Amino acid sequence: MECSLNKKIIIAIDGFSSCGKSTFAKNIAVKLGYVFIDTGAMYRAVTLYGVENGAIVDGVLNETKLIDLLDKIEISFKFNSDREASDIYVNGVLVEDRIRSIDVSNCVSAVSGIAEVREKLVAMQQEMGLNRGIVMDGRDIGTVVFPDAELKIFMTADPLVRAKRRYDELTTKGDIVSLEEIKENVISRDEADQNRAVSPLRRANDAILLDNSNMTIPQQMEWVSARLKSIIC
Ligand code: DC
C-alpha cells in the first residue's frame, strides 16, 4: 500500500471458527506494523488451565470451580519473530501448541459462555487496544470489545471448507483426528457461538462481510488493501 501509515486504527475481525481469521489478521498486522491479538487463544488458554487444574474433567466443565480459578490465571503474550506473531503464555508458561488440541477445542465453547471469563478477557483486550494500531480477531470484537473500531470485518466460509482447513492444520502437526470429528466440532461450535446467552457471535451492523470459501490468502489481502486505503491513506 503506497501511503503514509501515520493514522493508527483498530481493525476488528470476527466470524465463524476456522475461517482463517487469525492468518488474515496476522497478515494485516505485519503489513501495517500493528499488534495482532488472537482472542480465541485467550479463551483456549483459560480452557487449558481448567483442564490441567481440575475444573474440566473428562470433558465436563465445573463452572464454579473454573470461576474460582480465574484469579490465578495470568495471560501474557510475547512476540515470536519466526511466526511474526505473539505466542501466548499462562503464568509464564508457553501454551501456544497445547491450546490447539482437540480436548481444548471440545470444551472452549462452554468456557467462553461464562460471563466471568468474558469479563476478565474483554477487559484485558480493551487495555491492549488503548494505543490503537491493533488487529484483533475473535467473535465479539466489533460488537463488544471495540464497537468503535474503524474497520470491522465479519468472516465466513463453507463449514466443510473450514473443517478441511482445520483437519490439514492438525494432521500436519501429527495429531490423529478424523475429518468427520473436526466437521462435527466446527458445526457444534458455530451453534454454540451463535446461541450463547453472553455476547453471542453476530455480525456488527457496520461490519463488512468476507466469505473466503474460494479465496486464496493473497486475494484476501488484495480485498482488504482496497478497504484500508480509503480509511488510513
Ligand atoms: O477462534 P478460535 O476457534 O480459536 O476460538 C476458540 C473459541 O473461543 C470459540 O469456540 C469461540 C470462543 N471465542 C469467543 O467466544 N470470543 C472471542 N472473542 C474469541 C473466541
Structural commentary:
With 233 residues, this protein is α/β, with parallel strands linked by helices. The chain has one domain (10-224): P-loop containing nucleotide triphosphate hydrolases (Rossmann fold, 3-Layer(aba) Sandwich). The protein has nine helices and ten strands. The protein has helices at residues 21-32, 39-52, 63-69, 102-112, 115-128, 141-145, 159-172, 179-195, 217-232; strands at residues 10-15, 35-38, 56-57, 60-61, 75-80, 85-90, 93-94, 134-138, 151-156, 208-211. α1 packs across α9 (217-232) and α2 (39-52) crosses α4. The longest helix is centred in the C-terminal third of the chain and has 17 residues, at 179-195. The relative contact order is 0.22. The model has no long low-confidence stretch (mean pLDDT 94). The protein binds 2'-deoxycytidine-5'-monophosphate. The site of 2'-deoxycytidine-5'-monophosphate has 13 residues, from α2, α4 and α8.
